[in-house]
Specification:
Layout (H helix, E strand, L loop, with lengths): L7 H29 L4 H6 L3 H16 L4 H16 L3 H7 L1
Helix pairs in contact: 1-3, 1-4, 3-4
Length: about 100
């Protein structure tokens, strides 16, 4: 994106890759919960997984937004990265 000076199409393509990674994470967690059961420690730790679903929503908003304002779309991508850098205490609390 930097070589293209944050042109709309590369920013949208990057967002699409991020969205597909988020979908893969969603499928993985759903499969693990289905395998271990709804009452497993993992299912309890993930809960409603607002962080995962919220990330998908932000990516879905940022992709079309990149054609209007690519810098704002990139800032949404950074926002999701910051959300995932914040440790999730639910998992530690459940497994300890």
């Amino acid at each position: 994106m930097g070589e293209n000076h944050f042109a709309s199409l590369p920013v949208a393509c990057y967002g699409t890759v991020l969205l597909l990674c988020g979908i893969a994470y969603f499928i993985l967690t759903a499969t693990l919960i289905a395998h271990h059961g709804q009452d497993s420690a993992l299912a309890i730790a993930l809960g409603k997984d607002l962080k995962g679903k919220g990330s998908l929503l932000i990516y879905a908003i940022a992709i079309p937004l990149s054609f209007l304002n690519s810098i704002l779309a990139c800032s949404l991508y950074v926002l999701v990265a910051i959300l995932w850098l914040i440790p999730d205490s639910r998992i530690e609390r459940t497994f300890s």
